[in-house]
């Protein structure tokens, strides 16, 4: 397959992807959404820890390593009809309850 054929195939696939995305967005817009259970799905984070400096003089280079950080609280729910996934980082003030 020549490069031109590959470009044409890529263009065709991109058009098909765009059509699929538009169809999915349409389905999600008209879906009455029946939400499944809300699941706690925290986002992992990393913290960088300074171990020291390399080099001497007025321009030392810091070096260190990453450690697991405090996960960012997040909740997720999935529509049982269309598969739409919604995530939220917001909680109510009175208790840690997800708000969509
Ligand atoms: Zn839905």
Number of helices: 1
Largest sheet: 3 strands, antiparallel
- Kindly state the mean pLDDT as a whole number? 93
User: SSE string, helix = H, strand = E?
Assistant: HEEEEE
- Structural class computed from helices and strand pairing: alpha+beta
What's the number of extended β-strand segments? 5
Unreliable segments of 5+ consecutive residues: none
Beta-strand content: 25-35%
Q: Provide the helix percentage.
A: 25-40%
State the shape. flat
Instruction: From the alpha carbons, calculate the radius of gyration and give it in angstroms.
Output: 23 Å
Please provide a written account of the structure.
The longest helix has 28 residues. It is flat and about 60 Å long. The protein is an alpha+beta fold and 100 residues long. It starts with a helix and ends in a 12-residue tail after the last strand. The protein has 1 helix and 5 strands, in the order H-E-E-E-E-E. The protein has a 3-stranded antiparallel sheet, with no helix packed on it. The protein binds zinc ion.
